[in-house]
Design brief:
This protein has 178 residues and is mainly alpha-helical. Helices cover 59% and strands 7% of the residues. The chain folds into two domains: 109 residues; 48 residues, no CATH class. The strands form two sheets. It has a two-stranded antiparallel ribbon with strand order 1-2. Strands 3-4 form a two-stranded antiparallel ribbon. The two termini are 41 Å apart.
Amino acid sequence: MKQKVQVNADGSRKKPIQFFDQHSYLVKVEKLTKEAKKLSELIKLMREVTNDKEVTTLGAFNDWLCSEAGFKSPSFSSEALDLKDAYENIHRLNNEINSLTIKDLTPMHKLSKTLLDRTKEEFTTYYSNNDIRVEVLLFNRLVEQFDSLPYDFKKSVIVNREGKLLSKIADNYNKYNQ
């Protein structure tokens, strides 16, 4: 029976996963979720202050302040417009955000699927082609050796829940010949 080949969206073959560090992934997703809430607050505050939906970054907010007040310094501009508290809150929130941008969020300000996929990739270890080749060679050698056993041995072999091979005939032989 042929095994179905798994394919990525770009048409390339998926590599078999050796290990996925789920705990670290969940910790990072939780951290990103908290950061997304802060980014959402930041964007909401900037839009409230500016009444402009295009202002979504600190740079754009600073540019808006300078253009509204006519000063080159965003700090002076915020004081002139009586927006010093909002300016300081926006800077505080911006400093608490380390890695997210608005592009990493959905329109509902949740983490995007692309970001979650990138994060999952970060904590996934794949088998190398060499590892796979070695495992396949070992398995093929095992199959050849198993096929060379007498029929009664093959019939008595089972694989337990732990993945170990057991044989009633071999166990009896080992028991009496020690």
